[in-house]
Amino acid sequence: MDKKLNPHPDIPLDLPTGERIAAAVAHYGAQAVEQKAAKLLRGENAGKDFLLYAGGRHGLGILDGAPALYWPELWGARTLLFVWDDSVMPDVLAGLQNRSWRVREMCLRVVLERDLPALSDVVALTNDENPRVRAAALRALAAQGSEEHHAVIAQHFSDRDKTVRPVAQQARDTLTARLAAS
Known about the structure:
The protein has helices spanning 17-28, 30-41, 48-55, 57-63, 71-79, 89-95, 101-114, 119-125, 131-144, 150-154, 164-181. The chain is mainly alpha-helical and 182 residues long. Helix content is 62%, strand content 0%. The chain contains 11 helices and no strands.
């Protein structure tokens, strides 16, 4: 007997994320997608079909028994780059403290994309142990910070990870230009 999951053929497993989320919105409606994404981000079950919309073909592995780890939470946060309602903001802000660096990084991307008020968390995450989280925090800080945050950014010109250093320089330039324009 074949125990493989056979997903509904209308779920576009192989499309790019944005197109899969657009298909989910067409199927469920925007509000339902936002709420299901928030459920995933919180580590809750949002349904097998929605997991496939959010995670694509990778979601099949989880449904077939692979360890979920942090992937559904990450996919929930990533979905919120494509659909948004302010009611899910607390879930994104809570995700900034997630145990998985991938989820923290994606939540920082949502903070940046949606201009969410998270300045103190963003500043704290510039010192995260993971360089990708530090880089994402620097990008968000450039978009939200004030003159006083130049010093926070400057600390990362000599970051222990060489991939963060150019991001810090770009963040400085972005913050400087943004403040000069206002």
